[in-house]
Amino acid sequence: MTMVARAVIIRRGRMLLAYDKKNQMYFLPGGHVEPGELIEETLKREAREEFRGRVSNVKFIGACENHFPNGPGDRHHEMNIVFTAGVDRSNVVSYEDHIHFVWKPATELAQYRILPRGIASAIMKALRTGRPFWLVRVSR
């Protein structure tokens, strides 16, 4: 199982999303936890690596266990630990070739292909209610 740290970053009603150019889908900024690394430190490291930014005010908001196909006969199993966070800039530019960052209206997230499926609505509900979410996604 892979552990992944994800950040919900909202500024002026817009949420920061990463766009995977190859797979044409969106996901929350963040990345894989390295061995021995604290998950909150993963968010900080990924922000430095991906867009030379600094995240702050990191707070747990929920988790998503995700199982999905990863090629013929291969399945991937990951645990996404999701936090709200602030970021030190509004002009977020990717330093990685396979992604770019966009600010999308938080109220319109349902119209975008954000993976894992269902995570956008779980996040919006958690933000509205103040209660953390638990989501399990199994894709065939």
**Proportion of β residues?**
over 45%
Cα-based radius of gyration, to the nearest Å: 14 Å
Give the class from helix and strand content and strand pairing. alpha+beta
Number of domains: 1
**What is the top-level CATH class?**
Alpha Beta
The name of the CATH superfamily reads: Nucleoside Triphosphate Pyrophosphohydrolase
The profile of the biggest β sheet is: 5 strands, mixed
Main sheet strand line-up: 5-1-7-6-9
Per DSSP, the total helix count is 2
Sketch the topology as an H/E string, one letter per element: EEEEEHEEEHE
What general outline do the C-alpha atoms trace?
Answer: globular
Uncertain stretches: none
Instruction: Say what the CATH topology is.
Output: Nucleoside Triphosphate Pyrophosphohydrolase
Whole-number average pLDDT? 93
The appropriate CATH architecture is: Alpha-Beta Complex
| Number of DSSP strand runs | 9
Distance between the termini: 17 Å
Helicity range of the residues?
10-25%
Describe this entry's structure for a reader.
The chain is an alpha+beta fold. It has one domain: Nucleoside Triphosphate Pyrophosphohydrolase, CATH 3.90.79.10. It is 17% helix and 45% strand. The chain contains two helices and nine strands. The strands form two sheets. A five-stranded mixed sheet has the order 5-1-7-6-9, with helices on both faces. It is globular and about 40 Å long. The model has no long low-confidence stretch (mean pLDDT 93).
